[in-house]
Amino acid sequence: MNNVSLIYKEFGDPLQKLQLHAGEKLPLQPNEILVKMIASPINPSDLLPIRGAYSHRIKLPAVAGYDGVGIVIDQGKDVSPSLIGKRVLPVRGEGTWQQYVTTKADYAIELPPSISDNDASQLYINPLTAWLICTESLRVQPNEIVLMNGGGTSIAGLFAQISKILGFRLIVMTRNSRKIEKLQKLGAWRAIDASKGSIYEKISDGCDIGVDHAIDSVGGESGELLARALKPEGTFVSYGLLSGIPNDWRKLHDVYHVSPQLFALRLWNERHSVSEYRNRFSEVIKLVESGRMVINAPEKIYDFEDFYDALKHYEQPGLNGKILLNFA
């Protein structure tokens, strides 16, 4: 079967390194399915590998993309034909920025009809990450105070909603003042403008003994500020590096006396059974179905072939939703 994919043959700027590639799909293994893609978002985590963040474990050329939704059109001989025609998330297999994705049938998450394609395409990376960090990595309890940076990102809105679901108090730091009101409406206890004034004083107002947990997606000075605001032996989780500057883990431990840990969805998947993975995903899907977790509407949808324009749009500041690639 002919297939067109977005690949990179070397690491660097995605705008320069990504290219369309036409090729043949390999025959399915007995436990695999073939999924015709419908839509896939552009996430920060999709672009980090292209820039070389994980060059030690990525074999080039590689297909980009981690998230997305599609329709099952073929199955290996050991897979039930009942999956044919079902709408699924074809994750944990190949890169999703291509017309057809192959993945293990056990990894594919079937979706209820009540969840739209646009919402479904965004369900894996951000919602599952936010849910696992809060319920498993931090095990946040009601009324505990959680501080996070990266308030301008889509996932910040999910953390705000989860704080309302679980009953903890979330303080969000953002450099985009236009996000403050929205974050508070979604459930954040407080949203702080980190672009001006003394950020530490703003954080300390109302929680002068320190916060219970910190969630870092930025690194560098911003990550250190989170550590400074923590109670002694507070829990610090890092799941991203938007600044490109790594955290000084030893300093966080020795100077600020926090217990830093790294969260990566890939590593979580490796450490847990398929059954656990499916159960936790089911929790997220139920939250979305019930309306307790709302996925942001996309900023704009681009045809797959117009990926360059999509990436240029993605780089603009102040987006209100994800940029989606459409394969239909």
From TrEMBL:
InterPro entries of this UniProt entry?
ADH-like_C, ADH-like_N, ER, GroES-like_sf, NAD(P)-bd_dom_sf
Molecular function (GO) terms listed?
Answer: NADPH binding; oxidoreductase activity, acting on NAD(P)H
Per the UniProt entry, the signal peptide is: none
**Which UniProt keywords are listed?**
NADP, Oxidoreductase
Name all Enoyl reductase (ER) domain ranges.
Answer: 13-325
Q: Which Pfam families match?
A: ADH_N (PF08240), ADH_zinc_N (PF00107)
- CDD domains (alphabetical): ETR_like
Protein name per Swiss-Prot or TrEMBL: Enoyl reductase (ER) domain-containing protein
Natural source organism: Bacillus licheniformis (strain ATCC 14580 / DSM 13 / JCM 2505 / CCUG 7422 / NBRC 12200 / NCIMB 9375 / NCTC 10341 / NRRL NRS-1264 / Gibson 46)
